[in-house]
């Protein structure tokens, strides 16, 4: 296949996903913003986690909040649970892979915090177990998912579900939603000088 034609099809599929996602997620996205906003006002933090491409999203979004999105201002409390290879390998080796995020939630999560699990299928065991742990602690267990939300339905609330079955397109919506979340939180909680 010609790469130009292929790229045109990829863009068309992406644009179609943008169009169907915009209205589908408006309410759940607003609920996620409010939950994170409340956490920041209460002195809490946001914990991000996910597997594969979603692990990259987790650390990308935590960096926006701790460092800067658009505005130079105060640091906002966020952490990605995907970055400590000693911890991740010990936990997967000694306990089980499904414990890699749950163990960190158990150690770090406070009731005023928000845990945001990111999973395109909504079914990754490591994400589900961590969200269940967050709920048991009394914190907010939130999620970004795709497809029909999978096992995250009933575990994560708020749960933002991208109505697509294509993993790559779901991930593209997740980072758009994550950037929008960081932008909103920065507007509300990081007064400062616009950097770009
Ligand atoms: O980035 C991709 C595919 O675009 C992959 O690395 C993908 O994230 C991995 O297969 C994940 O393990 C999928 O997990 P999940 O999104 O279903 O929770
Ligand atoms: Zn990917």
TrEMBL record:
Domain named SIS is located at 36-195
Q: Which positions are annotated as binding Zn(2+)?
A: 60, 64, 171, 179
A GO term, aspect molecular function: carbohydrate derivative binding
Tell me what reaction this enzyme catalyses.
2 D-sedoheptulose 7-phosphate = D-glycero-alpha-D-manno-heptose 7-phosphate + D-glycero-beta-D-manno-heptose 7-phosphate
Read off the PROSITE patterns from this record.
SIS
Membrane as a keyword of this entry, yes or no, is no
Cell compartment(s), UniProt: Cytoplasm
Q: Cofactor: bound how, per the entry note?
A: Binds 1 zinc ion per subunit.
Family (UniProt): Belongs to the SIS family. GmhA subfamily.
Subunit text: Homotetramer.
Q: Briefly, what is this protein's role?
A: Catalyzes the isomerization of sedoheptulose 7-phosphate in D-glycero-D-manno-heptose 7-phosphate.
Q: What is this protein called?
A: Phosphoheptose isomerase
Source organism per entry reads Magnetospirillum aberrantis SpK
Q: Which gene encodes it?
A: gmhA
